[in-house]
Each structure stands twice: as C-alpha cells, then as structure tokens.
Design a protein that fits this description.
- The longest helix is centred in the first third of the chain and has 10 residues, at 29-38.
- The two termini are 30 Å apart.
- This protein is 30% helix and 19% strand.
- Helix 2 (29-38) packs parallel to helix 5 (95-102) and helix 6 packs across helix 7 (142-151).
- An 8-stranded parallel β-barrel has the order 1-2-4-5-6-7-8-9, surrounded by 4 helices.
- It is an alpha/beta fold and 236 residues long.
- It has one domain (8-230): Phosphatidylinositol (PI) phosphodiesterase (TIM Barrel, Alpha-Beta Barrel), CATH 3.20.20.
- It is globular and about 45 Å long.
C-alpha cells in the first residue's frame, strides 16, 4: 500500500509530543489540544504500564518528566496517575484518552516504544482497529512492525531510523541506521533523523524528518523530505 501524495502524513506538519513549550508539558492533554487548535497532526509515544494499559509518554524512566526515578512499565496506571507532569498539574494520559480527544479532529502518528512487554503491538492494535480517526504507526523496532504487518496489514506503518543513535549495541545501531529488515517489514514510509538527510537507503518510500526544532532547518529540508515532525516552533 502506497501512501497517497495527498495524505495527511505528507502534508500536515506533525507536532512532536503535541504542541508543548516551557509551560505546557510534552505528551499532555493540553499539548494535544493546542496542536488540534493550530491544525497540526500529533506524534505520540506509547508504553505499556505494569497492568498492560497503553499510556502516552516518551521516556523509559519517569524522572525527567515527573521527578519519580522509576521505569514506566514497572508502574500500574493507578500509580502513574498519582504523578504530575513537570511544571504542570497534568497527568500522563492513556492512549484511550488521547484517541477520544483526537478522533475525527486531527491525525495521530503513533510510536511504539521499545519495552520488555511485547504485547504492546497486539494491545495497541486492538484499540486502533476500533478507532475512527486517521493514524499511522511507527517504531525503531522492526520486530514490532513485522508483527503489526501480520495482524493489521491495513495499518500505515513506518520505520524510524538514524545514523546518530547512541547508548546501544552495535547490532541495534546497524539496524536503526541501515534498516536492513525493511524487505520484511515492508514499511509505507520512513521517519529519519533530520540531521542525516538526504538518506540513501529509502528507496522510493516517502520520508519524514524528525525532530526539526526551528524554521530555518524546516526550510532547508523542503524538497529533501516529504514532511517534518517538529517542536519548539510553529511551522508556517
């Protein structure tokens, strides 16, 4: 399945973790509401809690955004809801809360984060099969995407990549940089680190550049990628 040239995925700038700033927490309901109000699509990150509830949060460790030095997948949803996101009274939202907010209002780019519980793919897929809004799914983990292709071939799926990934082993670096499993994943698009554009191994697939942080860089990427995932500024 090819991504249509008129698809939202290629034409609506995507707000990274919502439209957040120094006073609005990333991956918060308020950040998502602001993105909707400005007409942007939204990128979200998904982890499973200890009790297998998908929640929207970027970091494996909770400390940066909540002050709690613990791994997100070691906490139940009830325990997570007792925490507040940095500089706000906002709570970590569940995927269901975000789907309810965004359905038929704005598209979602959903990243499946690497984690110990591989049930994330089947659990998230079950929720998305009942969702009536527009979305696409992406991940650095090609095994997640291969499973997604098997159980939900109709979903638009994309591979995340980068030539500059750190703090991981040689094999993971190779997979993330070269994307050698793409023939098995059969992605519909590629999301690649913006500093690495242009990328050589994309074939004819459309590309998204992540995460662009200023207008000057966004302008330089015009014609080099098909769309941007952005933060810290508002695209024209």
């Amino acid at each position: 399945m090819l991504v249509n040239k008129n698809s939202w995925l290629l034409n609506i700038p995507i707000a990274h973790r919502g439209l957040w700033n120094s006073t609005v927490a990333e991956n918060s309901i308020i950040a998502y509401e602001r993105a909707i109000a400005h007409g942007f699509a939204i990128e979200i990150d998904i982890f499973l809690t200890k009790d297998k509830i998908p929640v929207c949060f970027h970091d494996e460790n909770l400390e940066r955004m909540t002050g709690e030095n613990a791994l997100i997948y070691d906490k139940t949803l009830k325990e997570l809801k007792e925490l507040s996101l940095k500089n706000s009274g906002e709570k970590i939202p569940t995927l269901d809360e975000v789907l309810s907010l965004c359905e038929k209002k704005t598209p979602l780019l959903i990243e499946l984060k690497n984690q110990p519980n591989n049930e994330i793919v089947s659990i998230v897929t079950k929720r998305l099969k009942a969702y009536k809004g527009e979305f696409a799914v992406q991940s650095f983990n090609p095994l997640y995407l291969m499973k997604l292709k098997k159980i939900a071939p109709e979903f638009t799926r994309g591979v995340l990549g980068s030539s500059d990934i750190e703090n991981c082993g040689i094999l993971k670096k190779f997979v993330v940089k070269k994307m050698p499993l793409n023939p098995l994943v059969k992605p519909h698009f590629i999301s690649y680190y913006y500093k690495n554009f242009p990328i050589k191994n994309k074939g004819k697939l459309p590309t998204l550049a992540w995460t662009v942080t200023d207008k000057e860089t966004a302008k330089k990427l015009q014609g080099v990628c098909d769309n941007i995932i952005f933060e810290n500024f508002t695209p024209d």
